[in-house]
Predict the structure.
Amino acid sequence: MIEAVGLTKRYGAKTAVHNLSFQVRPGAVTGFLGPNGSGKSTTMRMILGLDNPTSGQVTIGGYPYRKLPNASRQVGALLDAKAVHGGRSARNHLLSLAQLSGIPARRVDEVLGVVGLQGVAGKRSKGFSLGMGQRLGIAAALLGDPQVLLFDEPVNGLDPEGILWVRNLMKALAAEGRTVFVSSHLMSEMALTADHLIVIGRGQLMADMSIKDFISANSADFARVRTPGTESQQREKLTTALTEAGGQVLPEQDGALRVTGLPLPRISDIAHEADVRLWELSPHQASLEEAYMRMTQGAVDYRSTIDQKAGLQQPLPPGAQPPMPVPGQGQPDWYAPPPPQQDGQPFAMPGQPPAGPYGAAAAPVAAGQPNPYAQPAPMGQEQTQPAAPAAAPAPHPTPTESEDAR
Ligand SMILES: Nc1ncnc2c1ncn2[C@@H]1O[C@H](COP(=O)(O)OP(=O)(O)OP(=O)(O)O)[C@@H](O)[C@H]1O
């Protein structure tokens, strides 16, 4: 288990992390979310002993990282996949890490297989694509077969197959009882991967709860009701009837009505009694992205001056009232977009993966099997891509490096 108590980090006048207390438990994938600059990487670096807290502490299994016996066998991390000596082959890079940590060389080939890089193990990593570099970083994190794993943006640069693989890898590692702490800005992916969420904003804890509780605490469920498009008087009649019955009715831009305060069967009965035909009556629950946007709106430091809320916050229709904020949470100016249309399932719920291979959940993996996280197919395109320009050689960020290196 990872435990932070009153964790604070200041860089001069800048407070990157402020009084953060949380626990990351084994047996689950814990997502670590927050806007750009909110302190996620700083927190991860303090967990790994790469930065010293200004005050407070963070421990792994009860020890600060630097006092952890055999740390590299107990904790694996992917922080910056680009921080690799580009002149070394993938195998040599992993071999050097293994030697430093007393890990047997045969483990190198095992993890190369796990991440699907066995076919390019002899190639210099400076020729690797972004996704290949990411896989190499994940291989390094897995090298010591650790019980605690930290991944900072692990799916960055991965293709859809790679994203699915990382998702299943995280779940399989957690299913084996490991502690998996992963940061990401990809909300749709987090919704499918994480069991629990820790959300920070401007260095402070905003939420520490299950993903299910997070979504329900930061979104108001509502019903979407649609009358025949050409019959505006029907819509008005229904609006009056629903309002008289105690519902709150909000017109949406596409002509539908958003109704809160009444259960779906009651809405149906009211429409029937008012002799109004319905073309749609559907439940809507916010996605993780909507819930996240609602919670973190006030903690965003970096925002474009152009169309700041495009796609995420629609302007209210004329005369409409914004939805009520959740007390103590969320932002009053938030207005949820309509749910996306998806393959004949126009109102797919969060947590319900679409049909097909990307919706498949990871099956628990039996311990002791060879390469339990290996992909079914070898890498395709990435292996055949031409070499990328050489990156500046940089040592891999092992937790033995000096602190405050960034
Ligand atoms: N070494 C440093 N010196 C000074 N300021 C720093 C240093 N490291 C981080 N910061 C500042 O601390 C804040 C938190 O940065 P951090 O990289 O932890 O955020 P983050 O949540 O990981 O961001 P992102 O999502 O963009 O990766 C930022 O304002 C950043 O500029």
